[in-house]
TrEMBL record:
Residues 65-176, 177-283, 289-402, 403-460, 483-592 form the Cadherin domain. One of its GO terms (molecular function) is cadherin binding. Residues 684-709 are annotated as: Disordered. The keyword 4Fe-4S does not apply. One of its GO terms (biological process) is cell-cell junction assembly. This is Cadherin-related family member 1.
Length: 767
């Protein structure tokens, strides 16, 4: 028996055996091979027969047989049923030759495959539908079990496509094409004319059956249909058609080759009878066609209210577009509106209030409109109109109105009761009792007047007008002096003034003119007609001239002064004025002027002095307190003030009173100016006789006293006199009799004593 060896197929790297008798590229296709092996050394040859066993490798792919795969499947095949079997082979042995099957896109497929047998089935719960999908393409995969190839584990597969054609079966009823169906029959259409054609097809498109047509109902004997073509015709004249619209129910049935009806379907056909446009719109009332409508109503109805008293209907006997028309009101705009605004065939006309304020009886007794209906989409544009007349009834909707918003009247203040002042007029445009007016007055001063009430507005509506009544001033007051006998002191060169008040309210009744009626002696005084200032004649400049005129050493004159107003008629009054004439003293300065002003009123002087002393005491306390606290902080005793004594010089006996001066005047006239109290210069009676007067200066604080030179002679105090006018109501006779010089000396002495006490308290040297 020859020796045995085993090898694998070429390229398997197992049991490779080399021999010149066995080419390496030879493909082994047998399970065992017998070969003769010879060995020679050049001299002799040895030969041996060898048997080789061949083992399989996975070097083959599966292959489908009997391809291509085309399957015909009826659409009514049940789900889960087998429809086809595919088969693939692999020439490898062992696991490399075993095959399993599966489908690609398993979730999108309607089919499944048995992985071992290759049987193709319809998925469970899935049915086929020829009308939805006639062909399905299924991709199947065959895969071997794998094996070694050149040392690596290899798996081979192959794919094929299975075409599944769905066969149609008679399971779908017929379907109408082009629904819905509409047809029109016109007035001039002839009987027997075709109106429209319906079309139906068998739902089973693979093997369709023929279709049979018939009208089930709705024809009412007016229409017919062809059994085979579906053409519908009118069999009556249009004027014989009783309806405007016909709804036909048409049936389409499938007829099998054997003549049996297998399925059917229905469709509705709408046929409209169209009339020619030969009728215009027409308005109708309750009793038939009507072209005028009337209504009576109250003015100012609520906006949005419907005029229910108007029963109006409008229609057009034509059909379709020929019966479509618009409605509108022609007349005063914005008062009413009409609905509907567009009508098809027929409608009830409604008129609604849009502007209540414009429906006014006082403006319109009758509102007239035209109701217009006009076709929209027809070339003829047929139209018609109807008159609408609305008679208005009055309501009390107006308030009385005066002829003017205000009235101005003037009446003399002394008019007797019952005098006519002014006539006011008010009107109310409402009719009847609503237009009657009642008058009444109220307001400031209304209790002084009466008004005739006339008639009354029944519902109490009212209007207001302002009446301005000006009371005219009448000259019914005469000027009045505050005293019938007055006493004045006149300094030569300065005037005195008198004043009379006239209680009348307006000029010229309250303007007073002054004059001197009587004087003894005469030709001594002049009086300003407007201001009442009295002064000496210009030639009288001293008391000596006065003494030459009269022997009266007291220099007291009595004048009769008249105050007369400028009214018509004019009134006047007189007063006796006693004037004491004095001469200006040689003393100058503020103190002298002050003493002259207060010689008739000593309490005023005392009050001023008390105020000055109070201020000085307050200043002293403040200075002392400040010095005390300063010394207390420094713990040192400091002198209050350094005293420097100067050599005294001889001075004149006239003591200088410069500390009484407020400023150095530029001339003698500016040393002191007498200014009356501002209040006394105002016109207390407001009679427009206001005289301009300078504003009084504020009282200055007294400066510190000067150091006066001591003299052996008695100091003579000189206080300058001042010009001014004093008008006291009560004159103290005793003060007057004491004389000018005595009062002056007493006041100066008292002032001197006060300042000496002050200087002693402050540690200053005495004067």
């Amino acid at each position: 028996m020859p020796p045995i060896s085993s090898i694998t197929e070429p390229g398997a790297q197992m049991g490779t055996w080399h021999s010149s008798a066995f080419p390496r590229t030879h493909l082994l296709k047998e399970d065992e091979i017998e070969v003769i092996v010879s060995i020679s050394d050049g001299l002799s040859t040895v030969s041996e027969k060898v048997r080789i066993l061949v083992t399989d490798a996975n070097d083959e792919s599966p292959e489908f047989i009997n391809t291509p795969y085309i399957v015909q499947v009826p659409e009514n095949s049940p789900s889960g049923s087998s429809i086809f079997k595919i088969e693939a082979v692999d020439r490898d042995t062992g696991s490399g030759g075993s095959i399993t099957y599966f489908l690609q896109n398993i979730h999108a497929n309607k089919f499944t495959i048995d992985r071992h047998s290759g049987v193709l089935r319809i998925k469970s719960g899935v049915t086929l539908d020829y009308e939805k999908s006639r062909t399905h393409f299924v991709v199947a995969v065959a895969k071997d079990g794998g094996g070694k190839l050149r040392g690596d584990n290899k798996v081979f597969s192959a794919t094929t496509t299975v075409t599944v054609n769905v066969e149609d079966v008679q399971d779908t009823p017929p379907m109408f094409i082009g629904t819905p169906y509409y047809g029109y029959v016109y007035e001039d259409t002839l009987a027997g004319s075709e109106v429209l054609t319906v079309v139906a097809l068998d739902g089973d498109r693979g093997k369709p059956n023929s279709i049979h047509y018939c009208i089930v109902n709705g024809s009412e004997g007016s229409f017919e249909i062809s059994n085979t073509t579906g053409a519908i015709s009118v069999i009556k004249s249009p004027n014989q058609l009783k309806k405007e619209v016909y709804e036909l129910r048409v049936q389409a049935s499938e007829v099998s080759p054997e003549g049996d009806i297998s399925a059917y379907a229905f469709a509705t056909v709408t046929i409209r009878v169209v009339d020619l446009n030969n009728h215009p719109p027409t308005f109708h009332g309750e009793s038939g066609p009507q072209n005028r409508f009337e209504l009576t109503m109250y003015e100012h109805p609520p906006e949005g209210e419907i005029l229910r008293g108007l029963k109006i209907t409008v229609n057009d006997s034509d059909q379709g577009a020929n019966a479509k028309f618009n409605l509108r009101l022609v007349g005063p705009g914005g008062i009413f509106r009409v609905v509907p605004q567009t009508v098809l065939n027929e409608a009830q006309v409604t008129i609604i209030v849009e502007n209540s304020a414009a429906i006014d009886y006082e403006k319109y007794k009758v509102l007239t409109f035209k109701l217009l209906a006009i076709e929209v989409n027809t070339p003829e544009k047929f139209s018609s109109t109807a008159d609408v007349a609305i008679r208005l009834l009055d309501t009390n909707d107006n308030v009385p109105k005066f002829s003017s918003d205000y009235y101005i009247a003037r009446i003399p203040e002394n008019s007797p009761g019952g005098s006519n002042v002014v006539a006011v007029t008010a009107t109310d445009p409402d009719s009847g009792l609503w237009g009657e007016v009642k008058y009444s007055i109220y307001g400031t001063g209304a209790d002084l007047f009466l008004i005739h009430p006339s008639t009354e507005d029944t519902d109490g509506k009212y209007s207001l007008a302002e009446v301005f009544i000006t009371v005219l001033d009448v000259n019914d007051h005469s000027p009045e002096f505050n005293e019938n006998i007055q006493e004045k002191t006149m300094i030569i060169g300065s005037p005195v003034k008198i004043e009379a008040i006239d209680q009348d309210a307006e000029e010229p009744n309250n303007i007073v003119d002054y004059s001197i009626m009587q004087a003894d002696p005469a030709n001594v005084f002049d009086i300003d007609q407007s201001t009442g200032e009295i002064k000496l004649k210009s030639y009288i400049r001293s008391l000596d001239i006065i003494h030459n005129i009269t022997k009266n050493k007291d220099c007291i004159w009595s004048l009769v002064v008249q105050a007369k107003d400028r009214g018509s008629p004019s009134f006047s009054t007189t007063a006796v004025l006693k004037i004491d004439i004095t001469e200006e003293t040689l003393h100058k300065g503020p103190m002298a002027a002050f003493l002259m002003q207060t010689k008739d009123n000593p309490m005023k002087a005392l009050g001023v002095l008390a105020g000055v002393m109070g201020i000085m005491v307050l200043i002293t306390i403040m200075i002392s307190t400040a010095m005390f606290w300063r010394n207390k902080r420094s713990n040192k005793i400091m002198p209050v003030r350094r005293i420097i004594k100067k050599r005294q010089t001889q001075q004149s006996r006239t003591v200088r009173m410069e500390w009484l001066k407020f400023k150095r005047p530029s001339n003698a006239a500016e040393k002191f100016v007498v200014e009356d109290d501002a209040k006394s210069l105002q016109n207390e009676n407001s009679n427009n006789n206001v005289q301009a007067a300078p504003v009084p200066p504020a009282a200055p604080l007294p400066p510190p006293p000067p150091a006066l030179a001591a003299s052996g002679n008695t100091a003579v105090w000189r206080v300058p006199t001042v010009s001014g006018s004093l008008t006291p109501k009560f004159i103290n006779k005793q003060l007057k009799k004491r004389g000018h010089n005595s009062a002056h000396n007493a006041l100066v002495s008292e002032l001197k004593m006060k300042f000496e006490k002050r200087n002693a308290a402050m540690g200053e040297p005495h004067i």
